[in-house]
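ugh ok so i messed up the first submission bc i forgot one of the chains. this is the corrected input, ALL of the components this time, i swear. 497 residues overall. if the numbers dont match what u have on ur side tell me asap before i send this to the collaborators (the ones from the other lab, u know who)
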Amino acid sequence: MTAPTIGVLALQGDVREHAAVLNECGATVRAIRKAEELTALDGLVIPGGESTTISKLASDLGLLEPLVQAVSNGLPVYGSCAGMVLVAREVLDGVPGQATIGCIDISVRRNAFGRQVASFEQDLDIACIGQPMFHGIFIRAPWVESIGDKVQVLASIPDNSAVGRIVAVRQDRNLATAFHPELTDDRRIHSLFVDIVKGQA
Amino acid sequence: MSESTTGTLRVKRGMAEQLKGGVIMDVVNAEQAKIAEDAGAVAVMALERVPADIRAEGGISRMSDPDMIGEIINSVTIPVMAKARIGHFVEAQVLESLGVDYIDESEVLSIADYANHIDKWQFTVPFVCGATNLGEALRRINEGAAMIRSKGEAGTGDVSNAVTHMRSIGGAIRRLTTMNKDELYAAAKDLQAPYDLVAEVAENGKLPVVLFTAGGIATPADAAMMMQLGAEGVFVGSGIFKSGNPAERAAAIVQATVHYDDPNVIAKVSRGLGEAMVGINVEESPVPLRFAERGN
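and heres the new structure output, hopefully the right one now
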């Protein structure tokens, strides 16, 4: 596979930033707003945004079931921030009945680090992408409260008051980060996902 | 950087990036905030009176009661914004201490300082400011605004000023992209804006921060038109809770904002919404009550 086709769920959020990075990583990018657009994708990115809004729109627009179906048929997914909430099996501090795709066996707490004044930047040690450290941008970010057996932890908070909290995970061909690599110039997380899609990672 | 840092340019501007494609709704109590959240709002704006009532009742409008803002913060999980008067940096300090997620330094409230806006760089919490044209937008960004909204004319249900302001900002950006470098100095002088920001806009063809629209949006078609004119998201004030069926209208405006370029969806969600807010023609509104002319 030379140029994989990767969709970005474009219901709400920083769609354009993810699309730009995926392009630079050699993917052909499609904005996904309707169920029929899910066919012929090699991978899917769920961007940052407001998770309750994305979840409600996906339900109302009849996109949630097709998403669950596509992912269970093996479509690899990467979710950042709100996207991490959308791929989680369980959401803590969500709105009642907040629906998710649930393809990664994690329990995620929304806005876990606090309100916007607590949003922060911090360098992270992510072994699978090597050095230098990855600059994490956390905006009203979630964290992973607990993980299932099949989930691999990629990164944790090193040293602030939330030390040890899990902020990046992988399960099979699915990836999730609590931070926003699309808001930096570092392409390594998206490159990793493109490699996963190509079957090279 | 090994330690974590808060209040950076990237987390302030990045917060607004997360709101893109969404609708931010004015609410005056916890019950309205819940309706907005259930309808799919990306954030709510907590204020004491919606602009239509400020317009009708007159008097001085100020920052909202901290108790009311606290109730709204406790009732929803989505971001909560609140308004401070133009130049009123202590109202902004209070809002920051209450934990609001974004401050709107807003012309809808009375002006506190006729000469100066708030020095927004001094705050950890990010600010959104209104603008009627590109120069005004760049002056606010220079003062530290992390998000811009076109001003429109709030509380009227008349979208015409929002259209004028969005076209003015978009047109001026397009003209900058066609200029030679030496012409940008004169452009900066004309715009009364810093050269560096003007050059950045000329190079990128967009503002360095997210651009929403506001002021007079009352229907799903209004919201979709503003998105087609280049807005990255929509503030709806009086248009929802001054209408006949707030919950359905709110959800319809959310869907029309997502599918702003699909007339079939806009037609479908526009059905059966009941009465839109009655509205006031901006041209018939007395000049002292035109909010957009406050602060430049």
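quick check: The radius of gyration of chain A is 15 Å. that seems consistent at least. The CA atoms of residues 106 and 151 of chain A lie 8 Å apart.
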